[in-house]
Specification:
There is one protein chain. By secondary structure, the chain is α+β, with helices and mostly antiparallel strands. It has two domains: 3-29 and 109-185, Ribosome-recycling factor (Topoisomerase I, Chain A, domain 4, Orthogonal Bundle), CATH 1.10.132; 37-104, 2-Layer Sandwich (Gyrase A, domain 2). The model has no long low-confidence stretch (mean pLDDT 87). A hairpin with a 2-residue loop joins strand 1 and strand 2. The protein has helices spanning 3-28, 78-88, 110-147, 152-185, and strands at residues 44-47, 50-53, 58-64, 67-72, 94-96, 101-104. The longest helix is centred in the C-terminal third of the chain and has 38 residues, at 110-147.
Length: 187
């Protein structure tokens, strides 16, 4: 395999890896019925006039599967954090006891579980499309190299290699989706 072909293959592999990392990130935000600090990941608070991620002004813990505890580093931030969580509209109400903020994670209904499974499948399909788009990019680059003088057998070998890489990444997406579905449907 030529150096140019290897560089392009590595680039395609990296693009597919990014698709999988993005899928994992998106699925980590889906509530599967148990408490997870990542549920609060996108929440920013007003910290002395600056919009700051919640995780940078407090400790976020999950003492059990049904609750999240937020302990701000400054007690004056309790009210600000509580307002930010309410404004984020995450479907859970924070309880401020003067020391920490506790969020009880309600159990999922059967209907909500099925909605989440649909959402998981949709995220998986988005990841598959992204992986296929990386494969198409690689194949286009391969055709350009062939026009520049790449031997035909090298081009065929490159097509076979990219298909193997694509199949490997699509298989990983399927496995991730399967695990998340099982997690969501487990009561």
């Amino acid at each position: 395999m030529t150096d140019e072909l290897e560089l392009i293959r590595d680039e395609a592999d990296e693009r597919m890896e990014k698709s999988i990392r993005h899928l994992e990130y998106e699925l980590s935000h889906l509530r599967a019925g148990r408490a997870n600090p990542l549920l609060l990941d996108g929440i920013n608070v007003d910290y002395y006039g600056t919009s700051t991620p919640l995780s940078q002004v407090s400790n976020i813990n999950t003492p059990d599967a049904k609750s999240i505890i937020i302990q701000p580093w400054e007690k004056t931030m309790l009210g600000v954090i509580e307002k930010a969580i309410l404004a984020a509209n995450i479907g859970m109400t924070p309880m401020n006891n003067g020391e920490v903020i506790r969020i009880n994670v309600p159990p999922l209904t059967e209907e909500r579980r099925h909605q989440l499974v649909k959402q998981v499948k949709q995220e998986g399909e988005t990841a598959r499309i992204s992986i296929r788009s990386s494969r198409k990019w690689f194949l286009d680059e391969l055709k350009n190299l062939e026009k520049e003088g790449l031997p035909e057998d090298e081009e065929k070998n490159g097509q076979k290699i990219i298909q193997e890489i694509t199949d490997k990444h699509i298989g990983r997406v399927d496995k991730i989706i399967e695990v998340k579905e099982k997690e969501i449907l487990t009561v």
